[in-house]
Specification:
147 residues, 6 helices, 65% helix
């Protein structure tokens, strides 16, 4: 295993161009992930994580449109969860936990609300979300007393 890793690492082209390209991609993906996650968290209603918040997606649309929209929404959510997991690895740019949260918010599965609440009710995550919302004159997220 170690030999394979050494061989893999030495097979890279470590020129200045490839290093600059890697650094550029790092900066672009970092900025894009922060902008996307921030945009969604700012636009959410403050009661989104409460149990009483309605969760119907396109309830007034035709069944085919609703199902295709749900399919696309869930696939995009899955992609965001996977990207968030990758961004959670040290040295990889981006807001990993917040991107995972955004992906989970898009997906539909049993136990979703409890998982969202567990992530958001972590003091550091909730403080980060509410600081971001305060910068844009949005009210803080309101959570239920119990998840």
């Amino acid at each position: 295993m170690i030999d394979w890793l050494k061989q893999y690492a030495t097979s890279f082209d470590w020129s200045w161009q490839s290093l600059l390209l890697g650094a550029g991609l790092f900066v672009v993906t970092f900025a894009a992930s922060i902008v996307a996650v921030s945009f969604v968290l700012i636009r959410l209603p403050p009661t989104y994580f409460q149990l009483a918040h309605a969760r119907d997606f396109w309830a007034d649309r035709h069944r085919a449109v609703r199902w295709s929209g749900m399919l696309v929404k869930n696939l995009f959510g899955l992609l965001l969860v996977l990207l968030g997991i990758v961004m959670s690895v040290p040295g990889v740019p981006g807001q990993g936990v917040l991107t995972i949260l955004l992906g989970l918010m898009l997906m539909d599965f049993p136990g979703k609300r409890q998982l969202e609440y567990k992530l958001v009710s972590r003091p550091k995550v909730l403080q980060a979300i509410n600081r971001l919302r305060a910068r844009f004159d949005r009210p803080p997220m309101v959570l239920d007393e119990q998840g």
